[in-house]
């Protein structure tokens, strides 16, 4: 029970990969903070993990693209628990667009805000507090798009490439008491994948080494590894978790 009574904050924690990580840490005794834009979904999951695992769970509505929302989330967590042991920057957004010249300023700013601006603010403030206190772990969830960008996901890929950079730079900024690592995820079956056309799945089956998309549960092991003492000499790392993307 290495995570017994640890405080784990997961953004985008009410659904998809975030929900699976919340459940996994709660199952192992951690108190969890579930942050996403929709409070009802956060409350529902918080009630579920409290009942099933007997841990504390704090639901917080937050749009991480807003720094005031990030700061309010941080205040809520520290007022409730007094610390954060593990921060997981999981919230992500990748809206479709017809062509690059049709990318609006609003869409660009929204994608950069959720995928890069928010993690920067949360990691900067919480990482500083961790470094001044008993230490901690920051885990960023990036994307294979950061190194294999396609024309229909360029703002998203740009943001995730920035998140890879933040991982290494903040590992240096907050070490040795804080470890910062990144899971560079490939295609996973989440709400986002519901919008993919059939040919996207066909291409994955044809070209990826494992021949399929990942399931949310398959990201949990990497998160537990990075959050645990098993990775005590690992920081600034970007782990490809993409089923063997070409």
From TrEMBL:
Transmembrane segments: none annotated. Residues 6-191 form the Ketoreductase domain. The keyword ATP-binding does not apply. It comes from the Bacteria. InterPro entries: KR_dom, NAD(P)-bd_dom_sf, Sc_DH/Rdtase_CS, SDR_fam. Gene3D superfamilies: NAD(P)-binding Rossmann-like Domain. Pfam families: adh_short_C2. Keywords: Oxidoreductase. The keyword Lipoprotein does not apply. PROSITE patterns: ADH_SHORT. Belongs to the short-chain dehydrogenases/reductases (SDR) family. NCBIfam families: PRK07231.1. This is Glucose 1-dehydrogenase. It comes from Pseudonocardia eucalypti. The lineage of its organism: Bacteria, Bacillati, Actinomycetota, Actinomycetes, Pseudonocardiales.
